[in-house]
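User: Structure please.
Assistant: Input sequence and predicted structure:
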Amino acid sequence: MDVDKGDLDQGYDIASQPYTRTVPVMATVYLFGMLYFSILVWDALRMRNTIQIIGLCIANLCLMIFGAAEPKQVNDAITRLKLDNVDTLLPVETAIPCILSVGTLIMSFIARKLYNEFAWSIYKHISADLRMKKRYMTYQIYIALMKFDFYFFLGFAVQLLIVLNPSQDVEFWLTVAAVPVVVLILLMSGFWVRRENLVGMIIVIIIYVAGLVYYFYKLVRIWTGDKFTLYQPINKELTIFAIFTLLLILGTIANAIQCTLNFGKGLRPYLISRRDVGGDEKAYNTELPKLPHSQAPIRMTID
């Protein structure tokens, strides 16, 4: 339903138009993304975590793709609402993905430099057992994926909350209730993988699979069904986030299974000891920590 001047003169509530929520959705996702990624950048540099730095470059690329869909969506919204501020909004919407693409290139270049900078630190602390190092790396990838899972889940949820009507849609309140539950699940999954809790990890993997089914269902429902008109103003943004979240969940499930298979193979003491390490040792998040009282590797010398 279009809004024209006659509708407005008759007191028509323009806020009830779903298309008026397109710009707020974009602004909310971008603002939260920039704030959250800034925290992850600080965390990655503090911990010298090269995996997280690479993940941030990929996440920045995802936001750039999200931004590339915005100009057309905003133009459609302005056209449907018959507003006259298209010349104000569209240049801003077009500039955002351009700025993000330049920022992603710069960030990728810096990430490469940081990887080289941290390489010597990682080499100094590397375990003699390369299989153990591989297990530890799998654990680190799993933890990093969970951090990005949180953002893409919350970004998708925020978009749903903006388009859903709290007085008419039960899904609105279910989505609100799901946010703290998902945060708790992510925190507990990190705790269980460190403690090598098999039952806990099986529960987490089952929940991840359920999340995979849910996002696939939502992806289909965005483009079909009785709520197609409701989702239409931001269907491209929802689709982009749903696809990214599906890929992330698949990667998280794969790493969760691999971490579970690594239980009982000697990694737990390294993960537990890491929380008791002080000083500089704590800084190297991608390095396998040294166990207390561990013997230094024997080096052969040539006289």
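Confidence is low (pLDDT under 50) at residues 1-16, 276-284, 295-303.
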